[in-house]
Design a protein that fits this description.
Four Helix Bundle (Hemerythrin (Met), subunit A); 2 strands; Arc Repressor Mutant, subunit A; 12 helices; mainly alpha; 2 domains; disordered C terminus
Length: about 270
């Protein structure tokens, strides 16, 4: 039960900080008031504050109490921090940073995947793609399979640091995928682009794999810019992946694929999968 109390209180207080309830530089209420507000013991409050200090959200010290740190100090690779931000509402700065990170990390990882992917790696990425395709054609959870596709590519790089980074990137990538999944025909249009990435990896062509993932990332960038350019409030991402409705099967490969100089056999594969 104590773990449940800790988790629940951590989420509530973390959410309160990212929502701006406690401004940067502001002091948190004294422990007795926090205990009363959350209905937990001092032990739980102290452990939660330690966790938030470790995540870079808070600073504690003699004579200064417990204060909220600027967001530049927050650990943006921490899944909890990303989840709280997504729940509070995405910001243009957050989305810009995410897009720039993808442009740096994923092309390098995919190049390595095209050189090093094992039969098992390919099978896992194929399974993820099949799940995405099924979700587009029959409706369902597209985002989870999309995440597995990109995680599979990072793991197929067989670079230990990139593999470790894939764990930290999960929550960040999901934020981008949720946005694309909510845009009309977003998953349908991105499906052949994913196929192009996989075909290039299977063909052991690093340069083409890199170009293909860049087209995919640019597509996500367009989705994000579409959201930012609208006057609607930026979306919040819940704990559950957003299911998509049944979408018609893409009739043609995106024009972007033709620019990647993929062999005809690869384009044929893309149409048939």
């Amino acid at each position: 039960m104590s773990k449940n109390f800790h988790r629940h209180t951590l989420d509530l207080l973390g959410h309160a900080i990212l929502s701006g309830r406690y401004a940067v530089g502001a002091s948190l209420p004294p422990e007795p008031l926090l205990c009363e507000e959350f209905g937990v013991s001092r032990t739980v409050v102290r452990e939660v504050i330690k966790s938030l200090v470790a995540k870079g959200l808070l600073f504690t010290g003699p004579k200064v109490g417990t204060r909220v740190l600027p967001d530049a100090d927050w650990n943006w690779f921490d899944p909890d921090v990303v989840a709280w931000q997504a729940q509070c509402g995405l910001t243009p700065e957050f989305l810009k940073d995410l897009q720039e990170l993808r442009r740096v990390v994923e092309p390098a990882a995919v190049r390595l995947a095209a050189e090093r992917a094992t039969t098992q790696d390919i099978a896992q990425i194929e399974a993820a793609y099949a799940g995405m395709k099924k979700a587009v054609e029959e409706g369902g959870d597209y985002v989870t399979h999309d995440m597995r596709f990109h995680q599979g590519l990072l793991q197929a790089s067989h670079n230990r640091m990139l593999v470790q980074m894939s764990k930290a990137l999960n929550a960040l990538l999901r934020t981008s995928f949720e946005i694309s999944a909510r845009i009309k025909d977003g998953p349908k249009n991105s499906l052949p682009l994913h196929r192009a990435v996989l075909n290039a990896v299977i063909a052991r062509e690093p340069a083409k794999a890199e170009r293909a993932i860049m087209v995919l990332i640019e597509g996500a960038k367009d989705d994000i810019e579409l959201v930012l350019s609208s006057r609607k409030k930026l979306p919040m991402v819940s704990g559950m992946a957003t299911p998509i409705k049944t979408q018609t099967k893409p009739k043609t490969i995106s024009k972007a694929i033709s620019k990647m100089n993929i062999p005809k056999s690869g384009a044929a594969l893309a149409k048939n999968h």
